[in-house]
Amino acid sequence: MKITINFIKCAILVFAITVTSCYKDGDIGPTGPQGEQGIQGEQGPAGEDGTNGTNGTDGTNGEDGEDGEDGNANVIASDWFGPDAQYFESNGYTKYAEFEKIVTEVDTDFYNKGTLLVYAKFDNYVEEVWPSDHISLLPLQISGGTTEHIYTTYTAIGAIKIRYRREGEFVPETYTISASALFRYVLIPQATTGKKQKVDFSKMTYEEVMDHLGLEY
């Protein structure tokens, strides 16, 4: 009897397995929500630095450029000189004392294009009228009470002329430039003045002009 019951149980179990295996799988369900991102892992150790590349060969040095000309290379400045060989002129309209200074550098090209500066200094006037250490560019005018003392300069090919004229109530028939008067000329060719914006030397003192041109006082 016991054997019969066990046999029946086994038969039922086999039947259940058989029936179950005959059913098809069901449809796949919908995708579930994405899970939260995990925590970032720790950074790994840095890799070793690569070997430095070989330095390239230095290039050949370029040739030195030529030295430029000095700013006053073509400027000519005279020493101080006096009124040698002066003479007096009177033509009925005007009268004046004058002398000529030979300057061979004043050629046609300079006469037409260059700049001439003539400076003067005097010690024959009272200090209140004209200090003995004062240097001024021609033309200039010195007021001496009732008389005006006027100095001008003119250029000719190969020379410059310096003229002295008096105007006033008490002008003598003849007069001369003081023998102690001193003059100095500076010749500036066009190539020198044309390098930069033209300079108005008349607005500069004697010392400023000498410094500008790199000349001794």
TrEMBL record:
Which superkingdom does the taxonomy of this entry point to? Bacteria
Q: Where is the composition biased (Low complexity)?
A: 30-60
Cite the entry's keywords alphabetically: Collagen
- Endpoints of the signal sequence: none
Region Disordered, as annotated, extends over 30-75
Pfam family of the protein (one):
Collagen
Compositional bias segments (type: Acidic residues): 61-70
Record's protein name: Collagen triple helix repeat-containing protein
Species name: Maribacter dokdonensis
